[in-house]
Structures are given as C-alpha cells and as structure tokens.
Amino acid sequence: MRFEHSQQMKLGQQMKLAPRMIQSMEILQMPLAELRERIEQELESNPTLELAEFTADGPTDRDAGSERDGALDIGSDGADFGRLDEFTASNPDAAENSFDARVRHDDGPRQRVRDRGERDAKMDAMAQAPARAGSLGEQMLAQWSLCEVSDRVRAMGGAIINQLDEDGYLRASFDEIAQRESRVLRGLDPGPSETDWELALQAVQLLLDPPGVAARDAQECLLIQIDSLAERAAEGDEDAPMIDLLALSAARRLVSEFLDDLMKNRLPKIAARSGLTLEEINAGIEQLRRLSLAPARGLTESAPEAIIPDATVEYDEENDRYYAYLNDGRLPSVRLSTEYESLARDRSTNKRDKEFLRKNLSNASWLIDAVEQRKRTLLRVISAVIDEQRDFFDYGPEALRPLPMKTIADRLGIHVATVSRAVSEKYLMTPRGIVPLRGFFSGGLATDSGEDVSANAVRAAIEELINTEDKSKPLSDEAMVKILNDKGIDIARRTVAKYRDQLGIPTARMRKQF
C-alpha cells in the first residue's frame, strides 16, 4: 500500500448567503408586531443602540419620521430604493463600511436618552395586564376543593378532573383512570367500583362550571347543559337568559332521541317520527345554538391576537389614485449611540473594548439598515400590488385579478422569493377593510371573453350566491356552476365544491331551512 500527498488548484464559483443577508431576509418577512419585539430585544442586549430622542420640532436627524413619510414616493423607481437582492455575500466588509460611513458623516446633535423620572409605559402596561389564567385542570381542581363531598368522592373526582381533555371531555374509561391515577386513589379501601365511579362523575358534572364539563360525548355534553338551563329557569335565576321551557324541552328530545338525524338536517323525518311540528323543532334548534360542544374552551382559550396592519391604503380623490404608507409609528425609533461611536474612534480606548464596541455598533447598524430596507421593499411591493389590483379597491373582492408573484418580481426587478417574504403575514388597512397582502396573489380561471378572473374573486362570487340564496331552496353546487357559467366563468362542479369547503360553507342539504 502506497500513500501520497498532492496539491491541486481549482477555479470555481460558489454562492453563499452571508449571515447579514439572512438577517435582512428574516426582518423583511417579520410582521409588524414581531419586528417590534425584535427591535426591543436588540435594544436590551446591544448597549450601542438607543431610542431616538424627539424634540419639539420632531425627531432628530436620523430618527424615523411620521407614518406617512414616503407615502407619495412609493411608485418611484429612483435610485434611493435599495433591493434585498443587492445584499450580497461578495462584500464581507459591508457592515464595517456602513459603520465607518456613519462615523465619518454623523455630526448631528444627538444625546442619549436618560431617565428623567417619567413613568415607564411598558412597566405600567405589565402591571395592569391581567394575571395568566390557570390551566383547565387547575381551575377545575380549585372549584372541586370547595365542593362539599366525602373524602372518597373528592379523591375520585380529582382523578376524573386530571383526565379531562382541553375541551372538557372525559375520554378515558374508569379502568384507565384507575390505572393512571393510582397515586391519587391510594388509600381508598375498598377500591372504587363502577357504581362509585358513576356517582363521582355525576358529582363532577353537576357541581362544576361551566355546565357540560366532564361529559363523555357530545350528546351527554348537550344534555347536561340543557338540564342546567332548565334548572336555572325553574329556580327563577335572574342571571339566566330568557329561556323558553317548551323550546328547551324540544331541544332535549332532539338531542336524546334524534341527534343523528339532527346532524344530517333531516328535520321532516324528525317531525314525522317525533310528533313535533317544524316550528317546534326550529325553536329547539335555536336553543341548541346557545350551547357549546367545547364547554371548557372558554376557560383556557386566550383571546385572539389583534391584527395590526403593516400599511394603510387610502384614496386620493383629487388625483384619482390610491396610495399607501407604512404604519411603522408603532416601531421604536432607534439610532446608534454617539457616545459609544466616539469611544470606538478614541485611540485611548483599549483594544478589547474597542473590538466589543465595533462589533455591537456593526450589529446595530445592520439592524437599522435592514429595517429601512424592509420599509422600502414593502412599500414598493404594496405600490405595485395597488397598481395591478386597482379594480379590487374600486369594486371589491369579485374584481380581483389573477396575480402571480413573478409579475410583481419582474416589475420591480427583484427575486420572487423577496416578494414572497415581503407579503408573508402582512396586512393592509384598505377602504375595503383589513385584508392580507398575500390574498392579492392567486391563480385564476378563464372567462368566455378571454379574460382571467382570480380564484379569490370566484370564491367571493360563490359566497355572495350563498348569502343571497333562498334558504328554503338552497343552491346546489351544480346550480352555482350554471349561474357562474352564465356569467362567463368556466368552472367545474368539483372546483365549486372545493372553494365552498375552503369557505367553510356546508352542502345545500345542510344549509336548507324548513
């Protein structure tokens, strides 16, 4: 066996994403709330980044302007609009060059923000925020601890509560509970029988709020809630809603005897078998609509996060055009610290400290540049979308046109991936309401006239047909295909069914009202 060493030279090209470019792409993709959190994290961790100081005349030289700054420039193709594609790995000194340029040209009169004894808005908000609600198990056990039951029933009830799922249902059998909760049940002599478990379960169902918790299936859940309402009405509970006891009685019969037919909307069949009139059945259904199939959700489900539009689109009547501006007034206005910039330039600063300062100043500089780049790119994309989808703003969702992201990318001279990141999780406040920016991009269907219509517009047309239909004779998918074909939209029945499912609309048989 022979070992040899050799050297070779090879010429080639390789493309890599620099960490700074990756950071810029991540910031471009962030929605407004997430970007705000990212900037606040950098403010906490990077001492060379500070909040900009506002004066009576507005922000100081490099501070961010008002939300409307640049609103009239979004259609411009001027050189001041940088592109994300221009961030390149071929210039590893970009961060240092940017920092050095700031050091050389920055002579603005800025000062660090210092504590002036004012109240901290963040601390006030945190102090006034409601305490986090306990888990479902914690809340149920807290209620159970106040119930007057025997020690034996208390232990078994606690074991049952530990096995509730997030909707409040008891999916486990009594044998499974006994195995999983052996530690809780230790000391019970004799061991719980099937009857003991049934009695303990009834106690949990009757004594805990909200009604319906610890049910084993949907039918039992609804019956518990119906019985609770009837009991409150019989006791004259002033807090109970207006309850029609006859309708509630009909609702109980529907759930206990005809639940399968009810779920399939077979109301005439129910009427024939039960002796109830359609009016009585519909009154019972109205009572059922007040009940919940997931009674415990309200205890643990957090409120949905509010949508914060990244930009606002308004109409300029004088010039008959729509324009956009970013809602970036919610973002902290940040800048580099002049004090630390001076220290980094000072020759008397030791090498270790200077290296630390230069690294953090570079990071802060790149963050500021990436945020500004995000603003420019997002405004350009929104401006192009407004031009392409002008009919949507004039006439509504049914006027949406098919718009591939490549169309916007080619128009702006950027990559399709950049457009995709720019529109990800972004929302616009428009005269038509708050709409997702990604919703303007979709494929389409051909019309008889040779024009294309957006898939979103077709969905809007289907939704409008269903909203205006005669509920006693709802439109079938085949009927909607015929109506759309008459309007010049060539569409198949399976496509109508797919779009209807995407809208969360049931079939015609389930929509029919008797």
Based on Cα principal axes, name the global outline. extended
Major β-sheet annotation: 4 strands, mixed
Instruction: Please give the count of helices.
Output: 24
Average pLDDT over all residues: 79
Radius of gyration (CA) equals 32 Å
Query: What helical percentage do the residues reach?
Result: 40-55%
Number of strands: 10
First-residue to last-residue Cα separation: 91 Å
> Structural class, from secondary structure content?
alpha+beta
Sheet-strand content, in percent, reads 5-15%
- Which residue ranges are poorly predicted, with pLDDT under 50 across at least 5 consecutive positions? 55-59, 61-131
Strand order of the largest sheet: 5-4-7-8
Any overview of this molecule?
Among the domains are: 220-294, no CATH class; 442-511, Arc Repressor Mutant, subunit A (Orthogonal Bundle). The longest helix has 38 residues, at 351-388. Helix 6 crosses helix 9. It contains 24 helices and ten strands. It has helices at 19-29, 32-45, 94-105, 121-128, 136-145, 151-162, 174-180, 182-185, 194-207, 218-234, 245-257, 259-263, 267-274, 278-288, 297-300, 338-345, 351-388, 390-395, 405-412, 416-423, 455-467, 477-486, 493-502, 508-511, and strands at residues 49-51, 54-55, 58-59, 311-316, 321-326, 334-336, 427-430, 433-436, 444-446, 452-454. It has 514 residues and is of the alpha+beta class. It is extended, with a radius of gyration of 32 Å. A hairpin with a 2-residue loop joins strand 7 (427-430) and strand 8. It starts with 18 loop residues before the first helix and ends with a helix. The strands form four sheets. It has a four-stranded mixed sheet with strand order 5-4-7-8, covered by helices on one side.
